[in-house]
């Protein structure tokens, strides 16, 4: 909308006065949290004992964040908006805490930190203090969905929050340090996926205060015309607010907010009422204010305000240096706290004049506590999607293709409510999940060509070749009360290692806060996995994401390796219904033998680990050896080895144990799903050799089971970083996970077999040699391998 058509572009003097009062109060509270241990209202001269012994926190970004919070309050109240704000500069924790305290939402969650002098004293004392709250915008802060300790993800979270929330405005403050990260740079492309009909709006606010910890920031040093060209190239229309005079900046910020929101409303109206289909050029506010604005201009003769020196604590030696103490008191009194708080420490009416009411307050919005909004996902009956299994190993299916039919039904059943999304980096069809396209196309707002398929401006399948964006979108979606699944090639999910770290930490902390309601779990489907990346080769072969996740908080993480299609259906049903977990499901997309009927799969998955009696030869007695397996390819190799043992060593008592839930291997005291020692010993015995074929790096199984009785009998085969472009079976041979090697391991480890079964062992070694020669001559696996099936 042209600027001359924008409404409410000028503040009255009274509005300016009250907005400035709110902003000054927030600045005072932010600085107080960094410095003060006592004397919160400065009712007496500052003394060293009033100062915290350790000064921690970040002042530099706080005044700019306070300005944004103040002006969001104004437009929320004036326009009746449902609004969420994602605070990218997470170091600005003092600001968001200060503002939530001012509006009363903080005291509602923490009644001992009320809006009075004792509450202010607690607010100050707890900040970055033992037993208190972190210095970042963390789960403890009302109104937050974004941990600011690691930069780069704010804008992706904001877009994820806006998806399928058509009445929601998501403001996103992006620090200019954060704007230098790769994930944030990619996040600007999210506007090509935002549907103005069914989604809310995202208002990015690029806060350029000039500096990171010790260096200038790239975007702050670009000429304005160059920065405008960059933002316009991303598909945004920039609106600039620049200055250091508070009154001037307040007026400019109010005008910018009104202009941006008028343009957003016009774009949504055009799409929703007039049927406009052109891609929207959404507004972005570029806010340039000094780093450390309104703080000390100089300290010890050195410039501080508007330099990198104001990033953290502008006055570091306050307890020891009387001049610094005097300067701190002058700084705090410059906000005129006696005008902002009454004698009991309560904010005065002018300070609260701009604050919205009830759930419209940024700290009270239910969109930042998504568990209050989440609904049960309508999961269909699995029997309608199960593959028939009359006997184990007689048929083959592609497990993820079978799952795709289930996800299609979930998409159809959520079409009206729009609270389920499938995300992935350009791999939905590659991962055999393309059935979902019959229920929903791929979200897309950019140009289309006749050759394109399944693109849909209203689609709920999201594909972009950025794992960071897939993760960020889904996290924002889940944290605001919806459901989803992230499908990814196993080797490349590592790109989001640090992002899942942060989400797990968020969930762990949230679980400890009684006011945070449980949200839908973050579910990964890792496919195109290490054992069937024989065509892409070594670069696509890495099963280590499971190791990474299992290092994290045990109350949050779960890992599942379903061995066939029906167990995958059972696991998917479980994880999609679950709350407050990070679930990692590893399953193949290539044809795989069907081992269990749907009923048997349910029972087996509920156990998490169990004996497959039909595969072993115990015959009711104690086993001589246990063959354990976890993962689809390892399971097939174990069963092939069991069949070889049945043929060549028919008197050997073999037990086959399949593990679906990897955390079952942990002791009960270390993980909620862990087995007791009694359970573990019952499955794996205390004194028999255990040959365990595992999907990933073998040392993980040792780590999970190292405290178990009989650990010295455990021998694990898995991926040992030997990969290339080769045949499927050669991958397992290269890593000594193949059936012949497993039989050799049994012979080597069962007492008495080394001599008695020497001829059998030699046959197994010869088979590996024949394999080596065959694939180089024919380019395919041995017929006895390629045509193998279970026939016990």
UniProtKB/TrEMBL annotation:
Span of domain Xylulose 5-phosphate/Fructose 6-phosphate phosphoketolase C-terminal: 589-790
Keywords of the record: Lyase, Thiamine pyrophosphate
Superkingdom field: Bacteria
Cofactor: thiamine diphosphate
Pfam families: XFP, XFP_C, XFP_N
Segments forming domain Xylulose 5-phosphate/Fructose 6-phosphate phosphoketolase N-terminal: 11-372
EC number: 4.1.2.-
InterPro entries named among the record's database cross-references: Phosphoketolase, THDP-binding, Transketo_C/PFOR_II, Xul5P/Fru6P_PKetolase, Xul5P/Fru6P_PKetolase_C, Xul5P/Fru6P_PKetolase_CS, Xul5P/Fru6P_PKetolase_N, Xul5P/Fru6P_PKetolase_ThDP_BS
Family recorded in the similarity comment: Belongs to the XFP family.
Name this polypeptide is given: Probable phosphoketolase
Originating species: Streptomyces hirsutus
């Amino acid at each position: 909308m042209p600027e001359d058509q924008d409404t409410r572009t000028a503040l009255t003097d009274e509005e300016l006065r009250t907005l400035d009062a709110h902003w000054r109060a927030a600045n005072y509270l932010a600085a107080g949290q960094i410095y003060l241990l006592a004397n919160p209202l400065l009712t007496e001269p500052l003394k060293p004992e009033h100062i915290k012994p350790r000064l921690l926190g970040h002042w530099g970004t706080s005044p700019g964040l306070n300005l944004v919070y103040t002006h969001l309050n104004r437009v929320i109240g004036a326009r009746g908006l449902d609004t969420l704000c994602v605070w990218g500069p997470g170091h600005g924790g003092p600001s968001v805490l200060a503002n939530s305290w001012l509006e009363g939402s903080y005291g509602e969650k923490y009644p001992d930190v009320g809006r009075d002098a004792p509450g202010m004293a607690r607010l100050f004392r707890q900040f970055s203090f033992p037993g208190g709250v972190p210095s970042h915008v963390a789960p403890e802060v009302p109104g937050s969905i974004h941990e600011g300790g690691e930069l780069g993800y704010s804008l992706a979270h904001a877009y994820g929050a806006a998806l399928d929330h058509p009445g929601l405005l998501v403001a996103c403050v992006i620090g200019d340090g954060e704007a230098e990260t790769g994930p944030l740079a990619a996040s600007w492309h999210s506007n090509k996926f935002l549907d103005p009909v069914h989604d809310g709006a995202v208002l990015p606010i690029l806060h350029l205060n000039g500096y990171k910890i010790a260096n200038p920031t790239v975007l702050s040093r670009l000429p304005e015309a160059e920065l405008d060209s960059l933002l316009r190239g991303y598909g945004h229309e920039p609106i600039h607010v620049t200055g250091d005079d508070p009154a001037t900046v307040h007026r400019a910020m109010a005008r910018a907010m009104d202009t941006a929101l008028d343009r957003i409303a016009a774009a949504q109206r055009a799409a929703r009422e007039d049927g406009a289909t052109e891609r929207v050029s959404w507004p972005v506010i570029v806010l340039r204010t000094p780093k450390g604005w309104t703080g000390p201009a100089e300290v010890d003769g050195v410039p501080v305000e508007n330099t990198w020196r104001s990033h953290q604590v502008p006055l570091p030696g306050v307890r020891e240096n009387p001049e610094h103490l005097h300067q701190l008191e002058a700084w705090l009194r410059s906000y005129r706290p006696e005008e902002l708080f009454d004698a009991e420490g309560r904010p005065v009416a002018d300070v609260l004049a701009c604050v919205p009411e009830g759930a419209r307050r940024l700290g009270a919005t239910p969109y930042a506590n998504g568990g209050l909004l989440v609904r049960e996902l309508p999961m269909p009956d699995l029997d309608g999607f199960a593959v028939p299994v009359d006997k184990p190993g007689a048929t083959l299916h592609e497990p993820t293709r079978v799952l795709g039919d289930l996800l299609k039904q979930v998409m159809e059943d959520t079409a009206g409510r729009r609270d389920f999304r499938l995300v992935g980096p350009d791999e939905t069809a590659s991962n055999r999940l393309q059935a979902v396209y019959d229920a929903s196309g791929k979200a897309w707002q950019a140009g289309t060509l006749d050759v394109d398929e399944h693109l849909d401006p209203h689609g709920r399948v999201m594909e972009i070749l950025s794992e960071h964006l897939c993760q960020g979108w889904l996290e924002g979606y889940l944290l605001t009360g919806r459901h989803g699944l992230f499908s990814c090639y196993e080797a490349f999910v590592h790109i989001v290692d640090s992002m899942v770290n942060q989400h797990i930490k968020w969930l762990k902390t949230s679980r400890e806060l009684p006011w945070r309601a449980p949200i839908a779990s973050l579910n990964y489907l890792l496919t195109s996995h290490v054992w069937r990346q024989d065509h892409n080769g070594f670069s696509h072969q890495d099963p280590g994401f499971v190791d990474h996740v299992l290092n994290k908080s045990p109350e949050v993480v779960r890992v599942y390796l379903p061995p066939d299609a029906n167990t995958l259906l059972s696991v998917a049903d479980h994880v999609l219904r679950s709350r407050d977990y990070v679930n990692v499901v590893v399953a193949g997309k290539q044809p795989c033998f069907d081992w269990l009927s749907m009923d048997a799969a349910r029972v087996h998955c509920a156990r998490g680990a169990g004996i497959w009696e039909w595969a072993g030869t115990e015959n009711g007695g104690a086993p001589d050896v246990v063959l354990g397996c976890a993962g689809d390819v390892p399971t097939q190799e174990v069963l092939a080895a069991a069949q070889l043992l049945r043929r060549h060593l028919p008197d050997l008592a073999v037990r086959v144990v399949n593990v679906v839930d990897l955390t079952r291997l942990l002791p009960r005291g270390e993980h909620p799903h862990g087995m007791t020692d009694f359970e573990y010993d019952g499955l794996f015995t205390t004194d028999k050799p255990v040959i365990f074929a595992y999907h990933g790096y073998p040392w993980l199984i040792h780590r999970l089971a190292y405290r178990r009785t009989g650990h010295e009998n455990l021998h694990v085969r898995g991926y040992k970083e030997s990969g290339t472009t080769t045949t499927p079976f050669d991958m397992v041979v290269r890593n000594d996970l193949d059936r012949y090697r497993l039989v050799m391991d049994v012979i080597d480890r069962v007492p008495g077999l080394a001599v008695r079964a020497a001829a059998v062992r030699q046959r197994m070694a010869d088979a590996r040699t024949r394999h080596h020669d065959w694939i180089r001559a024919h380019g395919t696996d041995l017929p006895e391998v390629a045509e193998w099936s279970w026939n016990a």
